[in-house]
Predict the 3D structure of the following.
Amino acid sequence: MFVENHHVVGFDPADPFVFSAAAKGRIHAQAFPEKKNIQAVGGARKAHELYRDEQVGAKLTEKAVAWLRQSRDQPFFLYFAPGNIHHPFTPHPRFQGTSECGRYGDFIHELDWIVGEVLRTVDEIGQRENTLVIFTSDNGGMLNEGGRDAWTAGHRLNGELLGFKFGAWEGGHRVPFIARWPGQIPAGTTSGQLIANVDLLRTMAAVVEVELPSDSGQDSRNILPVLTGDPEKPMREEVVLAPHQRANLALRSGPWVYIGAQGRVGSAMDWERSRSQGNSTAISIRRGNCEPTCLENSFTISNRILSNSTT
């Protein structure tokens, strides 16, 4: 269902939500592949019927565009997190069958349209030059049912990067970061700086010239100089990656990535599997911040060797 201004859209107090066993026979949510736990919540027929999965992207875009138009004459901040490209993959009917990669590819086509609508609206309200637009993601593609279908069709979710969502390899967390700010960010420029989404806190504060409290955003860095220029020194030397669980941490330091687990993706599941099978724990170090193919140049060292090192 939709929640707007802290209220469930279409909620009727006479038809409340019911959960678990009480939901049996009162399920109104649509069913799609990889749409999980829909049997856990029932009741609230009207609220459920207003939420049509294949219409969600278009509805959120409609709301975002309308809000931008209302805010055209005052400073605004829009955080827009569309469901594309998270499962369940439910592209709008107008995009179904438009790609050669099934529901996954069609959903990406819809996402492209959504981004285009937002950018077009920013231009139409006359705020193109005054607006910093950032397009990014919180993790890499996931090799779930829809992802596997797309892979079979020839689409490489994370390009040539190794791994997927939940993994410590770069395919799990090295994501696109595209920014547009005419007059501030030179068009067509790229940067090899190491940054993380956590850096957006201090960066946004710098944009609006607000000083954060001393106990806020300790791990965040202001990357505005990276966006608007090409600083010689790195904005950050390291970043800690927690792609799934505490047992699945990785450390990026300069051009190197340390992954303290073994397995195909360096995930917590691989870590536990290696322990249960009595295997010695392996530690992988890979060189990052280079062409994706350099991921083939890797080596594994044992804990014993690592413990004898001085750094």
About this structure: Helices lie at 45-50, 56-70, 102-124, 145-152, 200-207, 224-228, 268-276, 303-307.
